[in-house]
């Protein structure tokens, strides 16, 4: 299977599939494809293993349905584009080489790649979208492509070496790396430090990939420039009804 990564800031992952070759992706990731590519959407893909397996994939931040794209009868072109500035990293997945990635990191993979919940912890209401901190585990056998946001910084940790990271910057790491969530030490640091409440502790041996642009940071940076949403629709409806009544009275 031939593939190439096009671009730098907003890269595109392009495949040239031979007849019979397939790629599995989370539903909704497709950007474009040629006429010879066929689609099959199912809960059984990505190591779903039945409905229970699909629910475990969802618990890790994935989707209930996944789509398999196959070239039928002729070679085919298939492409996936990133949604925010970042990088696409290819990884080889084997029974001895598993990975944990952030909840939106899996872009696509070959049919032998499996997705499952790798880590799940609630960190309180309103933190990380109120859904807690989630990691997907990528296992099985095959190739996978991971989307990390912003620039990617890589570290190789020795046995017992620990790196403490803001959770949003955790992109991917080897399954040999142990992972836990810790609190920022010190009451004064918690209240006035401005670095949040929690840190992720990554302990080697193994390799870690950190991302410079957490989606939460991007959303916070863009929020002043976005229109304000109205939280209570019924209040808008009531205000509109009153306004219409007043207009009718004064127009008479």
Mean pLDDT, to the nearest integer, reads 81
Q: Which architecture does the CATH hierarchy give at level 2?
A: 4-Layer Sandwich
Structural class: alpha+beta
* Tally of discrete structural domains: 1
Number of helices: 4
CATH fold label: Double-stranded beta-helix
Oligomer: single chain
CATH superfamily: Mitochondrial biogenesis AIM24
SSE order in H/E notation? EEEEEHEEEEEEEEEEEEHEEHH
The helix fraction, in percent, is 10-25%
Rg is 22 Å
Q: Briefly, what CATH class?
A: Alpha Beta
Strand arrangement within the widest β-sheet reads 5-6-3-10-13-8
Shape: globular
The counted number of beta strands is 19
User: What fraction strand?
Assistant: 35-45%
Short characterization:
The protein is of the alpha+beta class.
Explain this structure to me?
The structure is a single chain. By secondary structure, this protein is of the alpha+beta class. It has one domain (2-250): Double-stranded beta-helix, CATH 3.60.160.10. The protein is 16% helix and 44% strand. The protein has four helices and 19 strands. The chain has helices at residues 51-59, 187-192, 215-222, 233-250; strands spanning 2-6, 12-17, 22-26, 30-33, 37-42, 66-71, 76-81, 86-93, 99-102, 106-109, 113-121, 133-140, 142-149, 152-157, 162-165, 170-174, 178-183, 198-203, 206-211. The strands form four sheets. It has a six-stranded antiparallel beta sheet with strand order 5-6-3-10-13-8, with no helix packed on it. Strands 11-12-9-16-19-14 form a six-stranded antiparallel beta sheet. Strand 1 (2-6) and strand 2 form a beta hairpin. 28% of the residues are buried.
